[in-house]
Amino acid sequence: MIEKRLAELKQVEQGLAALRAGQHDEALAAFTAALALNPSPDKLDLIARCHHRAGRIDQAILWYERLVGDAAKAGSRLAAGERGLCDALRDAGRLQQADEVAGRLLARLDTAPAAIATALLQADMPLPYAGWMRIFDKGRLAETLAAYAKAHPASEIFWPESFLLPGDADRLAAASAQPGALFIVKPTARSGGKGIALTRRPPPRGAAPSLVQRYIDNPHLIEGKKGHIRLYLLVGTGETPRAYLYREGILRIAPEAYATDDASLPRMARHVTNTALHRTHPDLVISDDPQAEDVGNVRSLSALLRRLEREGIGAEASWRRLALLARRLLDILAEAGLFRDQAREHAAHCFPPLLFGLDLLLDASGRPWLIECQRSPAIEGGALVNRINAELFQTAFPFMVQRLPAGDREAGLEALEGAGKLGLFERLL
Description:
By secondary structure, the protein is α+β, with helices and mostly antiparallel strands. It folds into three domains: 110 residues, Serine Threonine Protein Phosphatase 5, Tetratricopeptide repeat (Alpha Horseshoe); 235 residues, ATP-grasp fold, B domain (D-amino Acid Aminotransferase, Chain A, domain 1), CATH 3.30.470.20; 55 residues. It contains 16 helices and twelve strands. The strands form two sheets. Strands 5, 6, 7, 8, 9, 10, 11 and 12 form an eight-stranded antiparallel sheet that branches. Strands 1-4-2-3 form a four-stranded antiparallel sheet, with helices on both faces. Strand 6 and strand 7 form a beta hairpin. Helix 1 runs antiparallel to helix 2.
């Protein structure tokens, strides 16, 4: 039994990796093998997505219908199955049937809005168009940004100077010779803050592949501690997609006071702000009150903006800087051809609008720096995170599921804007 389960999980992981790489037939083979080992709703959804992305629309419809045909068995995957069926029907030109499915799903949303919206986002967020991996992989993000900087030498950068090892070893050696140089080393094969180290010297040649960044050693501090912001971007489909930035987010704060003396460099609790990494730290405080926005190590973006207003940096000015960074990132992706390629490679409704996270750091002057892009940011956390995310997902749901009599998703987004249903989303593009 254990061996069978392990074999199933291995097939699923291989399939997910292939799907994220745009290898639809390889993913389909892996998910089909996993389904044979253990039939389950998530595999039906994944198989349907493979067919849809490969352009086999009729096959996708059949698999989605199989998934949603038994609502009780579909469980939490029902919302993703119905939305997928709706979009596949649109690509097949069956617009009336598609709107009927969308109507049922929108009606069901009222029965349990937070649970249904969360289930849909949980199914969608790990599986974007393959081209998005150029920013969700920290190494490829560094390459994408470096290529843009090379093509636009006069453009102000909004990310730390980065070095991909082993290829950038010589450039890093030259940078490390500068007085006061300090770097943060991030293994490319790990996430969640694991394996990070601070150093004044570059890793030795022959060390494991890693991303090394010049450390932003003058961060804006909250009560003497370093923090980072999680923002949420929602980006539509098409060659010129609409994009929206959510005006609420999460602030995560390190449990120990910030310092960069030599003795403090190994203490990751002074530098790494990922609270999951410090779960057992005695000084980590996460409130059980969902309304407590300015308490402990997990706070709201709104609370941070209020603090910045009191400090004279300015709340609205800070928000505008955050929005400008997000807009510039989207401009870089557009220039790199991401939106064009997605629109040309896949059917019009193959992918729903994409919701993802940006992790940003403010320096002491209030200038934001992009640290990472999160393909699948933590959906659940403490009480405050759960409240903010539940509101976010409920607002995002109509962007994912709409009645579109003409089959035009852009017209649907325009209608949402016209009806005043953006909530805390602010349009960027």
